[in-house]
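Training component of the fellowship. As part of building independent skills, the fellow (R.M.) carried out the full modelling exercise for a liganded target. The chosen ligand was adenosine-5'-triphosphate. The inputs are recorded below so that the supervisory panel can assess the work.
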Amino acid sequence: MICGTIGEDYTAKFEIPKPLEQLQESEMERRYHISGVMTDVLGYLTYRFVESGFEWSLPVVFSESTDPLWPDPGASIEKRIDVEIYGKTVRTTASMIIHKMVACSLLYPRLFILSPNVRIEKRERAQTGRHTYEFTQLDFEVRDASSRDIRSLVEEVVCGLIGDLRRDAVEELVYLGRHRTLKTPEAPFKVYDMRELEKKYGKEWEQQLALEITDPVWVTSIPREFYDFEDESGKWDNYDLILPQYGEVLSGAKREWEYDKIIKKMERDGIKKEHYGLLLKLAKEGRLKQSAGAGIGIERLVGWIVGAQHLGETQLFPKIPGVVYDL
Ligand code: ATP
Ligand code: ASP
Ligand code: MG
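Fellow's submitted model of the complex:
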């Protein structure tokens, strides 16, 4: 497989993963081992979250509100999918952030969802090796939690997961050439402020940082969508988890819950308020609770663990930007 580099270097040339029916025997064997790791990862994560008192909810596909994916500077969507059903316009799930905030406020103090996300990424993103146009997040939210609580939980889960895989998925990791190189990280992970990283590395800070680190690290204070908490000084209380050689695998934050502040941020960002009717109603009534959470990109997590060159290798039916296979 031809090697590329991480991030937004569109000159990198990744071999685009083929669909199942075109795989040679050895490629089939590789996919089979990657699937074995995927099964173990999903088994471990769901077990850990349930054991930690999280409710496990099923995902939804169509809703009036979904993640605006803007003004995230990394967002690069070619097209949004709006469809009319029963006389109403709904959107396919870009992430279940709004649903999590609502469910966490009204019903479950701790919940998670394995949620399929549809993001029609620009076709050149096929060459980052890190983007597909359908992927799954393990999206979770905790009422009254702080960012630090969430980061500690994630650290425990990631260290536990790698430790378990190194013990229980030896055959797969040895076959994939990762048993020797995949080390169980040590918690707590280092924390970097994005503004400092930008000063040091410029706009390409994520790629540069990922190439320098040997353990996962946190990056905080990242300008993102309206729902992440910003204090009076404009500092964002949020975090991304960056994997060595790989890049971002998780984004999360403490959330905004106050009506006036959410409205101001939506206006600042040019977000259509009419797409967020329920969220705004709950906030106005004081029924939106304080929470924090995050979403782990499952394909990216598994891609890092198995050493996939392209994320499509972790998908049984690859959804690569610009490439539409039969299935
Ligand atoms: P990036 O900047 O890398 O494109 P993002 O910051 O826009 O990603 P988020 O909105 O933070 O992505 O999504 C949460 C997580 O979902 C990411 O940390 C990543 O693991 C995963 N993810 C996001 N976009 C994709 C994609 N197109 N393909 C696969 N996984 C993705
Ligand atoms: N899952 C992310 C979060 O919890 C939202 C996103 O997908 O961008 O913050
Ligand atoms: Mg992100």
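The panel noted the following from the submitted structure. The longest strand covers residues 134-143. The pocket of aspartic acid (ligand 2) is lined by residues 67, 95, 97, 137, 139, 251-253, 293-295 (CB under 6 Å).
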